[in-house]
Amino acid sequence: MTFTRWLKKIRHFLPLPWLLCDGATVARIKCEHLFSVVGTSYGVGDHQTIFNLHDFHGRFSLGVGKASPVGVLGENNTVELTTKHLPSHSHSADSLSTLVAGNHSHSYQDPGHDHGGRTGNGQFDAGGYKLGKDGNRNSYTEHSHTISRDTTHITIEPVKENEHQIEGQPTIAGSGKPFSVIPPYQTVIYIIYTD
């Protein structure tokens, strides 16, 4: 089967034996030769007495190839990109925060301690006795008192390993709106020779 672009004249009507490629139904007996060529490739009609013509509404012709044999209808003229169509990429993290604000605590050990020091020498003579009212006597001499010193011995335990959940989301981009893949075009009416 061959197609011919009929460009000899511009008219306001379609001369016979040409028909519009608009998907209309045609009697098989009326266009017997055309039906013998295209058959029901573009529509079976009523399966008995009629068949469908090509429908070029909103379509353009494409040369036959391995991926596009004769009679194949193309897909939609718009597409919607999904992640499988995109190259590998990354998004900025935007604003993130921990769910518990990173709260944690430290434990400590306090075994107890005391403070100490040493008193100075008292202002006494070299020695002597002191008599009490009851006649008893006490001896005295120069001396000092020593108080032991120590550190606190408090230790702070390190923080154990822990996890904090992060909430937030990467920067959002795009809206998923389908876009046209039709190249620049000029509309025409396709016709087919039926005899």
TrEMBL record:
Q: InterPro entries given for it? A: Phage_tail_collar_dom (IPR011083), Phage_tail_collar_dom_sf (IPR037053)
Q: Which residues form the Phage tail collar domain?
A: 13-60
Coiled-coil segments on the chain, per record: none
Q: What is this protein called?
A: Phage tail collar domain-containing protein
Instruction: Return the Gene3D superfamilies for the record.
Output: Phage tail collar domain
Concerning Pfam families, the annotation shows: Collar
Q: Where is this region: Disordered?
A: 102-127
